[in-house]
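Hello forum,

I keep getting stuck at the same step: I have a sequence, I want structure tokens, and every attempt I make locally crashes halfway through. Rather than fight my setup again tonight, could one of you with a working pipeline run this one for me? It's a single chain of 349 residues.
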Amino acid sequence: MPGRRALPHMVASWVLVWVAQITPNVTAGEIRSSYELGRGLELGSSGITLGGYASINYVDTDEAPWVVEVSDLSLLISWDSGGRWRAFSELEIGESLVLNSDELTADEAEFEMERTYLDWLGINGVNLRFGKFLTPVGHWNQVHADPLVWTVSRPLTTRAAFANHSTGLMLWGNANAGDGQLDYQLYVDATRALDPIKDKPSPPLEMGAFDDGYGARLVYHPEEDNWQIGLSVADYTAADLPGRRAIGGIDFLWRRYGYELSGELVARLDSPGKSWFLQGVVPVGQRFYIVNRYEDFDNLGYTGRVKSNSLSLVFRPRPPISLKLEYIVGDDAPGIVGEGFLASAAVLF
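Reply #2:
Ran it on my machine without issues. Output:
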């Protein structure tokens, strides 16, 4: 078996060989003319688009000494047949380079297959997806890439009560609903049977992968798409947790003229426990934003209650580029939310 650090290089080599084999007639001129930052690189008429994102994070809290890390290097590969078939894959190297007061190291680099799935586009808004995808609970988990979110830190609500990824089968699509549209996702997770290298738990909060489960998410948004409201449910087992668990959630997102208000609530349906956050975004000058988030996390995947507040200044010189400075503080949250500063620079290719 190759070493952990050798594996990303092997995967990158396989991807390049595969792209070269299926796009033999793509010229350099076609590639240059099709590229736009943040929208990926279309490889001629092959139906393949290459994209990705990268982020560098700085963390200095009272929980641990300061650290600077290349936290994400992600390659996004999508394919569109021009007909009913589409495919998507996200390959990521996390913590590829870490600098602290003692050393600069690549020993913590870890390759992850974040997503890999095949879509069959049916009729009347009914589609099928098979593979590994982001678990549809709330809206944050499905747009969690650093360049696309407003803060360096991730709300506990979006990562403690459910697996970030699911492997299995999903029925998804949309339907007209009054003056708007209803999007739906219905899925069955079979990670234990389908994914031999499933996500591992990361105590004290992240549970890792489901063993098996099922769930649904419904989202309504009007035609102008300036707000949305979603409902999520999931029932699952996980290797590190006793028995079955059931959760339910509600989330919303409103935005207009650069202002944004969003929130999510996730609650246990089989026992006490809930978590919620509310986040506001206010534009202050050209391309600068102030972001404030309050979160109340109560006995949901972690025994105890945690309240935290985050205040950020965000600069987006262009939509695919995001620079963030954040101060976060948590009450009675040793080992969970540290008080201190975080910063990041991220770009979507």
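Residues 1-22 have pLDDT under 50 and may be disordered. If your local run keeps crashing, start a new thread with the error log.
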